[in-house]
Write a structure and sequence with these properties.
alpha/beta, Rossmann fold, Alpha-Beta Plaits, 4 domains, 6-stranded mixed beta sheet, 4-stranded parallel beta sheet, 20 helices, 21% strand
């Protein structure tokens, strides 16, 4: 579409009938840490605790009398659902929002509190969207898409209008979280016309980088199963309309990992005493990576805190991972001789570094394996320095800091070791709802012996399991078919070094 048309839509969007103009706060601690002026756009302070109210209201406010009488329907697992419910209620329109059964109760309750009718269907967004589209067809309701709609995009673009009005001086870059692309499309369209010297940088989780994939391919592509930690941006394919807008307007895309997002959540808390959801802190994580990788100094940078719909039970997981993301903890597997004084020698080799955790596995008559957490000061080279000191003290060391299986499971597994020649290790994710764990065990354990099992609930919509299964050579083909039928995301970890040191 013509950029002039979208610009006019943004300027005419009546979002302030329900949304508020959120502050652009200076993050003084983060600014000092990075050597740049960092400003955070506080969309977490909207009435629904995310920017989604802007686009939802702009779309629903444009309905004619017949459409309003028919009502609206949407599919969402979180922030868009709350935005549609509140916007529709404000305009006197009945709303039905279909949400996956895995949606945390706090979000379902919020939709109902804002006046929407919440229906639970399926385990994923796609299953919820199927029902929502059936309702649209059968009842003649208007489907309110979360991002692939020009009026929704225009509503989100009002965030950029506020940023440039609130800070009329030069802004070197604006960092925008990317899921389906509605927010970055609206922001890029406005910023490119009004402040062309300002860079617009998208930020995605490394395990859900659909915009980066689309830019590389030159077209929208399905990136397959995506990571679920930052559920607000866990989208397999960028929206067609957003991509048409951003493909020539976005300067670059930065991808970040879970640990970096957790560290950013802590950064936001330290500066604002508020808790961002993972998708909300995504842009701050991307800003940090961009600054440190390019050694940027003295710039004015804006990051959008897009939401605060965080499940309280998830905070434990965030706290565990934040120190690693801040380069303040290293996780190491150290082999020590099985003799008196070996532990003391290891601690002496660590010098002044604090020990954050110490997990021991008997490895045999001659050696033992220790899973050790080591406190760091935050310097990126410090981890290698610690490992060098241990090797100079004649300890074998394997770095586990970036090993997802080690961080999710192994560090919490204290117990014996076993040797099973037919054992294979797998990590699974499955929908977290009542009875899900039992059904998972019945599906897996009913056909193959479970030799190892570790499950932790992180307060998320999906449970994470590490399972050891005894699978003979004659069963391999059948097992591969079973994995396909199971339909859950999985990763084989049989060759993971953490497995060999601590579990095998």
């Amino acid at each position: 579409m013509a950029s002039e048309d979208l610009l006019e839509r943004i300027l005419r969007a009546p979002v302030y009938d329900v949304a508020v103009e959120t502050p652009l706060d200076e993050a003084k601690l983060l600014s000092a840490q990075l050597g740049n002026r960092v400003l955070i756009k506080r969309e977490d302070l909207q009435p629904v605790f995310s920017f989604k109210i802007r686009g939802a209201y702009n779309r629903i406010s444009g309905l004619d009398a017949v459409e309003r009488k028919a009502g609206v329907v949407a599919a969402s697992a979180g922030n868009h659902a709350q935005g549609v419910a509140m916007a529709a209620t404000k305009l006197g329109v009945h709303s039905r929002i279909v949400m996956p059964r895995t949606t945390p109760g706090i979000k379902v309750d919020a939709v109902r509190r804002f006046g929407g009718e919440a229906l639970l269907e399926g385990d994923t967004y796609d299953e919820a969207a199927t029902l929502a589209n059936r309702i649209r067809e059968e009842e003649g309701r208007v489907f309110i898409h979360a991002y692939d709609d020009l009026d929704v995009i225009a509503g989100q673009g009002t965030v950029a209008v506020e940023i440039l009005r609130q800070h009329p001086e030069t802004i070197d870059a604006i960092f925008v979280p990317v899921g389906g692309g509605g927010l970055i499309a609206g922001i890029a369209a406005y910023v490119r016309r009004v402040s062309p010297q300002t860079r617009v940088i998208g930020v995605e989780p490394a395990d859900a980088a659909c915009l980066a994939a689309a830019l590389a391919a030159g077209d929208c592509v399905d990136v397959g199963p995506v990571g679920l930690f930052a559920d607000g941006v866990a989208v397999r394919q960028i929206g067609a309309k957003p991509f048409e807008i951003v493909r020539d307007l976005v300067d670059e895309v930065v991808t970040v990992g879970i640990d970096e997002i957790c560290a950013a959540i802590r950064d936001v808390f330290d500066d604002t005493r508020s808790i961002a959801e993972p998708a909300g802190a995504l842009s701050i994580a991307g800003l940090k990576r961009w600054v440190l990788s390019g050694e940027i100094r003295g710039a004015t940078l804006v990051a959008i805190d897009s939401g605060a719909n965080m499940n309280f039970d998830s905070l434990r997981h965030v706290a565990e991972r934040a120190a690693i993301g801040e380069q303040r903890e290293a996780l190491l597997a150290v082999t020590i001789p099985e003799r008196p004084g070996a532990f003391r020698s290891l601690c002496q080799a660590l010098g002044d570094h604090s020990v954050t955790e110490f997990n021991y596995r008997y490895g045999g008559s001659d050696e033992a394996h220790v899973f050790v957490g080591v406190g760091l000061s935050g310097r990126r080279s410090e981890r290698e320095s610690v490992m060098d000191r241990l090797r100079q003290a004649h300890f074998e060391v394997v770095d586990m800091t970036e090993n997802e299986m080690a961080k999710l499971h192994v560090r919490f597994m204290v117990g014996g070791r076993a040797s099973m020649p037919d054992e294979r290790l797998f990590r699974f994710e499955f929908p977290e709802r009542p009875g899900a764990l039992v059904r998972f065990l019945e599906a897996v354990g009913g056909r193959w012996n479970i030799s190892l099992f570790h499950y932790r609930n992180h307060g998320a919509a999906f449970g994470r399991v590490l399972a050891g299964l005894e699978i003979s050579d004659s069963d391999r083909d059948e097992f591969e078919r079973f994995l396909e039928e199971l339909g859950y995301p999985w990763v084989e970890e049989s060759e993971n070094p953490a497995a060999g040191l601590f579990l095998g």
